[in-house]
């Protein structure tokens, strides 16, 4: 029995029936047409990403999903901590193998995941979510979700564990940083985590299948990302590896998933593949 009625536990059996193929391990009578092969829910772990990576080192984990009610050592980009009270967040990782994909295109998987998360929370929670390059999800400029992808293997076929953290019912005094938010604080119509998990995992599956069916062509995926990316058109500061900084307008996302910036005072553009992006207020014209 849980003590907080506003934060009920995930229903692992119901999630398996909705999302997992019926002939897979842990399927619990799942739909044979479903995309995912296994789904587990644990009460507590350090990191769902780390757990799936460890599992993948000694068994076939393609399309495995792992959710945790509490994640004590969750990681974001650059090893930043991502924690929340138990059952107030969706902490989920999934391993996906991309047969025949070039290693150079693997970086599109976290961007695809961002598109899927935005679509799912827009459709179910009815909030105006958008992407901040490369893979943060914002609502009115505040971070509600983050995505971290880690390579499990590059041969014979690339396999990546992609982890997602979504703040669902965190109160304002529970937020990890001032610029964070939660679906509850943003007035979401739905904060039921079972409903949200189903929507997110189905959206990822649909996007992955579409990408696979084009033989990993990124044209449509890049268009979908651009359409949901709130970074485009913004004045931004890019903090680049090595401690350098770039100020300018974000003008595009190229076919390699890089953000293209038109630097202030220059006529050229710069494609940034790694770095922290901050959305800045426009410069006032006197």
From TrEMBL:
Listed GO MF terms: biotin--[biotin carboxyl-carrier protein] ligase activity
Protein name, as recorded: biotin--[biotin carboxyl-carrier protein] ligase
Sorted UniProt keywords: Biotin, Ligase
Any one Pfam family match given in the protein's UniProt record, by short name: BPL_LplA_LipB
InterPro entries named in the record: aa-tRNA-synth_II/BPL/LPL, Biotin_CoA_COase_ligase, BPL_C, BPL_LPL_catalytic
Top-level taxon in the UniProt lineage: Bacteria
EC number annotated for this UniProt entry: 6.3.4.15
PROSITE patterns cross-referenced by the UniProt entry: BPL_LPL_CATALYTIC (PS51733)
């Amino acid at each position: 029995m849980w003590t907080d009625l506003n934060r009920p536990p995930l229903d692992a059996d119901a999630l398996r029936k909705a999302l997992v193929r019926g002939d897979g391990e842990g399927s619990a009578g799942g739909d044979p047409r479903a995309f995912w092969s296994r789904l587990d829910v644990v009460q507590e772990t350090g990191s769902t990403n780390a757990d799936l990576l460890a599992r993948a080192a000694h068994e076939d984990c393609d399309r495995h999903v792992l959710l945790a009610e509490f994640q004590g050592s969750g990681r974001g980009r650059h090893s930043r901590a991502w924690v929340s009270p138990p059952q107030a967040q969706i902490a989920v990782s999934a391993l996906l193998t991309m047969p025949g994909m070039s290693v150079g295109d693997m970086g599109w998987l976290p961007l695809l995941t961002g598109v899927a998360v935005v679509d799912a929370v827009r459709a179910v929670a009815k909030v105006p979510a958008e992407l901040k390059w490369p893979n943060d999800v914002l609502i009115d400029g505040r971070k509600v979700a983050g995505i971290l992808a880690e390579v499990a293997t590059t041969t014979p076929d690339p396999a990546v564990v992609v982890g997602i953290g979504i703040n669902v019912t965190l109160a304002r005094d529970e937020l990890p940083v001032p610029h964070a938010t939660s679906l509850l604080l943003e007035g979401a119509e739905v904060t039921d985590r079972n409903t949200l998990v189903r929507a997110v995992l189905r959206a990822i599956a649909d996007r992955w299948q579409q990408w696979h069916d084009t033989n990993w062509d990124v044209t449509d995926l890049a268009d979908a990302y651009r359409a949901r990316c709130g970074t485009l058109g913004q004045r931004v500061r890019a903090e680049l590896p090595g401690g350098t900084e770039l100020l300018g307008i974000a003008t595009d996302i190229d076919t390699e998933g890089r953000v293209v910036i038109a630097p202030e005072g220059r006529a050229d553009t710069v494609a940034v593949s790694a770095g922290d992006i901050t959305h800045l207020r426009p410069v006032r014209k006197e």
